[in-house]
Amino acid sequence: MDNFARLLKESWTLVEEDRDRLSGRFYARLFLLDPGLRKLFPVEMTGQGDRILDAIVTATQVMDDPESFDEYLRSLGRDHRKYHVDAAHYATMGVALLDALRSTAGTGWNLEYDQAWRDAYAAITATMLAGAESDENPPYWHAEVLTHERYGTDTAVLTVRALQHPLVWQAGQYVSVEVPRHLPQVWRTYSVANAPNDDNVLEFHVRTPAGAGWVSGALVRRTKPGDLLRVAAPMGSMTVDRDSGRDILCVAGGVGLAPVKAMVEELAGWNRARWVHVFYGARHADELYGLAGLEELVAAHPWLSVTPSCSDDPDFDGERGDVPDVVARYGPWTSHDCYVSGSAPMVRATLRALAEDEVPPQHIRYDTFGNL
């Protein structure tokens, strides 16, 4: 397995700096092999290739961890049911992927790399198909928007009710969301911002920069109560370990608050002995849209503390600085279970701070957020 993983990672270095060309060649070959597959993809393909390539690369990187490999790919297979792909589609994608890898890598590609990717792709698709076939849920749920509240120009909190069929998730997980009225066949992942409940109601926190489009823009600016969305199967492993006796550190930046809020709500139902410390950061005080709700939870649960911080607001009456730096000032966190959620730079900085604090990697879980 070590040699197999080495071949995958070594060969990936031949193409990773040229992902746009790799993506373009992959789709050109895919649609040439089977023109009917084009209807499974959105009209505007920008960004679509990166998602598929990211999924494949992530899968190849965890192949030397059988438990993570199996769990990730089974979830991915269940999630891909929303695209209505089958075994024949996966086979065609495999041919297109290998052709794109060979042509992009050029003379550096060799037979060993070719066989490693063939074997990896076969294992990936077999596990994804097994996950899809074992799922008794629908490919996606229709969901009605119940409430929609704006915070400033770029953030919205909305609740939806999944219709017709129970949707089971764990606090800290995320789902894919489609806005079929505005952007059919374009999906974007969002963490569920509330603990599981019997009402099939999910809360989402969505942020989009001014002038941006895509799914986040549609959810913030064009969605209203009564609209119908589609929600796919829950994924993700940033969930509370109930068997642990360690105290908990949660670090959230911006709408990264969503999974942290869900976990705190879940903990409120059963936690009595573990201290929970939440650090919640933004640039300005008016971007701490979820602070009032957190403070209500603090008032009700003595084991919970919340420390807000602002990185670019000299008038803020609280901690100043980037949230990873604030967290580092309050350490050590070596004996805690740590959960981190926010933008990619914020998560990377927090992980560095926790590593410097010698927190064991197995005690850290994280999710990163981007914008569409």
TrEMBL record:
Residues 138-241 form the FAD-binding FR-type domain. Residues 1-133 form the Globin domain. Pfam families: FAD_binding_6 (PF00970), Globin (PF00042), NAD_binding_1 (PF00175). CDD domains: Mb-like_oxidoreductase (cd19753), O2ase_reductase_like (cd06187). GO terms for molecular function: 2 iron, 2 sulfur cluster binding; heme binding; nitric oxide dioxygenase NAD(P)H activity; oxygen binding; oxygen carrier activity. InterPro entries: Cbr1-like_FAD-bd_dom, FAD-bd_FR_type, FNR_nucleotide-bd, Globin, Globin-like_sf, Globin/Proto, MRET, OxRdtase_FAD/NAD-bd. It comes from Micromonospora matsumotoense. Belongs to the globin family. In the C-terminal section; belongs to the flavoprotein pyridine nucleotide cytochrome reductase family. Its EC number is 1.14.12.17. SUPFAM superfamilies: Ferredoxin reductase-like, C-terminal NADP-linked domain, Globin-like, Riboflavin synthase domain-like. It comes from the Bacteria. This is nitric oxide dioxygenase. It catalyses: 2 nitric oxide + NADH + 2 O2 = 2 nitrate + NAD(+) + H(+); 2 nitric oxide + NADPH + 2 O2 = 2 nitrate + NADP(+) + H(+). Signal peptide: none annotated. Keywords: 2Fe-2S, Heme, Iron, Iron-sulfur, Metal-binding, NAD, NADP, Oxygen transport, Transport. PANTHER family: NADH OXIDOREDUCTASE HCR, PROTEIN RFBI. The lineage of its organism: Bacteria, Bacillati, Actinomycetota, Actinomycetes, Micromonosporales. Its cofactor is FAD; heme b.
